[in-house]
Structures are given as C-alpha cells and as structure tokens.
C-alpha cells in the first residue's frame, strides 16, 4: 500500500533549548512585539546572561524561528528584602549577582511572540525552568509577575483586592492567571517593581513554585565560610645548568604549599627564562626560541606535581611557540585532577616586543576550579581595568597575576593596579613575582618584587586590604586564606557595592569575543 501523502511535509518542529548568542537579534526584535512601551533588553544584557549563567536561559523555536524566550538566575532569596525590585534582584538586568551556590531559581523574564500565543509556549518554557530547578537541586523557583490588566480595575480595587479576585477566577489576568495555573503560589504584592510597567501600575506579584524533589545538602546549610588557601611563591632567579635544576626548585615550593594544605600555589611570570642562563646564546630573540623547546618538559613537570601533591598550580608563565611560529606568553592552570587550562597574555609590553618578539593573545578566560571560578591576568594585563571587570562579570572571584618587573616603579604599577582591581570588582587579587638576578642573560639581569594577596577594602576583610605579603626582594613563600563566602556576602551587603552600583545607563564595558 502506498502513502497518499508525504507526512513529513505536514510536520512542525517545536523545541525548547538553551539560548545562544546567535539568538540575540531575534529576541531583541521579538521583545518589541511583546512589550511595547517598556524598556527593552539591550544586547549587553543578554550577552551577560549567556556569559554568567547560560543554562538558565531558554528559547522556544518553531520551525527554526524564535517565538519565545525566558531568562533566570540563581540567588539565595532570603538575602533580599521582601520589597525588592526587579533591578535589585537582577543587577539592573545584567545578573552579575548570580550565585551558583544559591537555593532559588529566580525568573526575570518570559516572553512569547503575540502571533504564537495559545500554543502553550509559555507553559513549555516554565516546564524547562522546573526541569532545571530539579536538575540543579534548587529549593524553589521565585518570580516577580506582572499584573498587566490591573490598570482596568485600579479605580475600584487595590492591588491586593485585584490579585485576590484573579486568584478566585473572578477576573482574568493573562500573566497572573497563567502563573497560578502553573502551580505558583502567591507570596506578596511588591510596589515599584518595574518602573516602566504602567499597565501593572508598577506592581508585581511575588510568587513561588516549590521543588518537591529538593534534597537538602548539609554542606550548603548554615555556611559561614568558604576558605581557600593560597601559597604565593616569590621566586629567586639564579644561574642553573639544566632543566632538572629548575624542576628541583619548583618541586620544593610545591611540596611546601602541599604541606600547608594549600588549594593554590602561584609562581611568577616567565620565571622559566632562567633556562636561558645555560643556553649560551647572547642574542635574546634566538635565546627565547631555544627556550620554547622546553615547553613539553615544563607542562609534564607541573601536571605531575599538581596531581602528586594534590594542589592547583598557577605555573607562572612560559614562552611558547605555537603552530603559527609565533611566540606567546602563556600562563597555565594545572588542576590537581590533572586537567590543564591556559591564558595568553593580552597586552605585550614594549620590552617584550623589542627583545623577544612576543605576540599577543586576544581572549579573557575564566576557569572553573574546585575552589570556584578564577582568572589569570599576566603582569601588564592587570594594569588594564577592563580585563578584570570582564573576568568578574564572567564569575571570577580570584584574579591571579604572575608578574616580572625589574625595578620598583614597574613593581608598584602592578601592585597598585592589583589593589585597585580588588576594590573595583570586589574580588581577591594575587601577585607573584621574581627576585634575584641573571647576570649573563640579556634583558633578564635584574628583578624587583614584593608578592602579596589583596582583598576588597571593607570591615569584613584584612586591615588595609592586604591578606598577606612577602618581604621585598627575598626568596620566600607567603601563605594566606581568602574566604569566598565573606566575599559573596560583602558584594550583597557591603559598605559600598561597586558591582551592584554600576551605572549601566551611563557606561558599559563591551567584550568583543564570544
């Protein structure tokens, strides 16, 4: 029997999936149809959502066309005032206050194109959120819902009376009625929630869906601290005769860090240039190319030490020749589980260009570790505040800066900028430098350093914002603890709140790499 019709020609494809950067233009066009007269998303908002919490952003797609979307973040709802506004809970739409260790998924936007309503698109998006809350073992979903038909009844009803009437099915409200049908319960009515929502007269219903599958995790209850121990190595440059000499000194410091139960040990920028001291090559540009031949041994050494001593290692930085025959200044993260990441130096100093012909990287990276998200910004890079802001917006709590400076002026540029980045971004910063000298090595003959760990400047942190520092120009280590839980609370309730108080309506930092 032959088929009369080709059924595939009648099929439609409706999918709910995670949002991508390629969807942003479609979403921006759709919101003009969904919310005329209200302040729209900007591209920077959606890019921030995808950079910070991509798994919490969904789109509905019908035959390849975006017809709906929703956005969310994770918070500890108890830390917010009951009368919070949308701007309070979303950092004005940028969700930089997203807390991956929080208890509650907070929904901040759902939109469905008007031409595709009554197709249960909104319900599908809500189900995707519920599935996410179950998968992440979150306690509940909280939303601040509009009441867009309230303006029709404001003369005869208070907001509370209107919400009560909708709850009793005496009045239909397209948003509140839908939320009640999706098992959300009313908590309260918040005034001045969305200043541009004139149809709701700026009111919103605070509602919650409880995850009945939620399993309390003891490690997340009553958390008072989240300590991370950092061992900073102030490394002395010295004449050596083989790679083995360098490896022996490196292992000594890793052993010291491990004995102190450190989570991270940090080495300085290009401390491996002491390999040039036995290469017998007077021309710096040739010597640096010879030195790149030790890259494989360098990576094998640090990978082995990280696993064997059970410590995450910021392996300083090393000059690496890549397939394009260019040489880059690269800092490697060697995790204690054996995995490896790398960060290219983005800003190359005039000295590096003149003597060694070093090429620049072009991407800011933030790395997941067993102690939260970190970034690495090599020496000169910490002197450009945009990079630290981008890394912080991507979730970094600690910025490590391996550095190499030959005089006090250069050192102070690194130090003062690292301290400024800690204050501006409410993060911890760590600087690790070289001391000593290499008399026979051109362009690496003298060093100046005083390594340190810096904190934001507020009551909860160490006096003067200095967790600890080494003595100047002496080979030694400094071990200090930073507390990520205090950092998180201070971002929310500190004396000043640089991250929350940024004027996105006046300025913004735009990262051009996806």
UniProtKB/TrEMBL annotation:
Keyword Cell inner membrane on entry: no
Family membership: Belongs to the carbon-nitrogen hydrolase superfamily. NIT1/NIT2 family.
Upper taxonomic lineage: Bacteria, Bacillati, Bacillota, Bacilli, Bacillales
N-acetyltransferase domain segment(s): 14-173
Protein name (record): GNAT family N-acetyltransferase
Keywords, ordered alphabetically: Hydrolase
Span of domain CN hydrolase: 228-484
Organism: Bhargavaea beijingensis
This protein's record includes keyword Hydrolase: yes
Alphabetical list of InterPro entries matching this protein: Acyl_CoA_acyltransferase, C-N_Hydrolase, C-N_Hydrolase_sf, GNAT_dom, UPF0012_CS
Record CDD domains: NAT_SF, nitrilase_Rim1_like
Pfam families xrefs: Acetyltransf_1, CN_hydrolase
A molecular function GO annotation: acyltransferase activity, transferring groups other than amino-acyl groups
């Amino acid at each position: 029997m032959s088929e009369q019709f080709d059924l595939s020609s009648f099929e439609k494809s409706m999918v709910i999936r995670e949002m991508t950067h390629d969807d942003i233009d479609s979403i921006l066009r759709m919101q003009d149809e969904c919310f005329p007269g209200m302040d729209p998303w900007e591209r920077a908002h959606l890019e921030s959502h995808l950079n910070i919490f991509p798994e919490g952003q969904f789109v509905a797609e019908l035959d390849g066309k975006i017809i709906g979307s929703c956005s969310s973040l994770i918070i500890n709802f108890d830390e917010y005032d009951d009368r919070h506004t949308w701007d309070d809970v979303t950092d004005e739409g940028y969700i930089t206050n997203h807390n991956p260790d929080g208890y509650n998924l907070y929904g901040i936007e759902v939109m469905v194109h008007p031409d595709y309503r009554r197709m249960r698109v909104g319900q599908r998006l809500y189900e995707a959120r519920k599935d996410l809350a179950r998968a992440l073992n979150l306690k509940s979903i909280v939303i601040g819902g509009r009441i867009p038909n309230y303006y029709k009844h404001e003369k005869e009803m208070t907001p509370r009376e209107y919400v009560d009437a909708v709850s009793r099915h005496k009045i239909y409200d397209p948003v509140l009625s839908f939320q009640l049908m999706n098992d959300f319960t009313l908590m309260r009515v918040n005034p001045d929630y969305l200043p541009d929502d004139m149809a709701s007269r700026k009111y919103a219903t605070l509602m919650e869906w409880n995850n009945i599958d939620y399993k309390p995790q003891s490690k997340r209850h009553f958390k008072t601290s989240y300590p991370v121990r950092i061992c900073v190595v102030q490394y002395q440059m010295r004449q050596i005769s083989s790679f083995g000499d360098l490896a022996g000194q490196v292992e000594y410091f890793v052993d010291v860090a491990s004995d102190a139960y450190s989570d991270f040990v940090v080495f300085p920028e290009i401390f491996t240039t002491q390999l040039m001291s036995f290469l017998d090559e007077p021309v710096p540009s040739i010597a640096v190319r010879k030195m790149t031949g030790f890259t494989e041994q360098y990576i094998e050494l640090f990978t082995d030490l990280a696993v064997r001593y059970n410590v995450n290692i910021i392996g300083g930085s090393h000059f690496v020749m890549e397939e394009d025959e260019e040489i880059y200044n690269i800092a490697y993260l060697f995790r204690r589980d054996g995995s490896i990441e790398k960060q290219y130096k983005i800003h190359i100093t005039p000295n590096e260009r003149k003597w060694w012909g070093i090429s620049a990287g072009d991407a800011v990276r933030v790395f997941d570790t067993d102690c939260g998200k970190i970034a690495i910004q090599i020496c000169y890079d910490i002197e450009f505040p945009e990079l630290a802001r981008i890394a912080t917006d991507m979730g970094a709590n600690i910025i490590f800066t391996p550095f190499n400076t030959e005089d006090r002026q250069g050192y102070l540029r690194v130090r003062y900028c690292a301290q400024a980045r800690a204050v501006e971004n409410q993060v911890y910063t760590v600087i690790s430098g070289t001391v000593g000298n290499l008399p026979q090595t051109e362009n690496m003959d003298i060093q100046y350093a005083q390594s340190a760990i810096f904190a934001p400047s507020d009551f909860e942190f160490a006096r003067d914002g200095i967790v600890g520092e080494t003595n100047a120009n002496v080979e030694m280590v400094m071990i200090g603890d930073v507390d990520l839980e205090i950092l998180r609370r201070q971002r929310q309730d500190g004396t000043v709140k640089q991250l929350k108080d940024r004027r996105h309506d006046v300025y913004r930092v735009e990262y051009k790499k996806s």
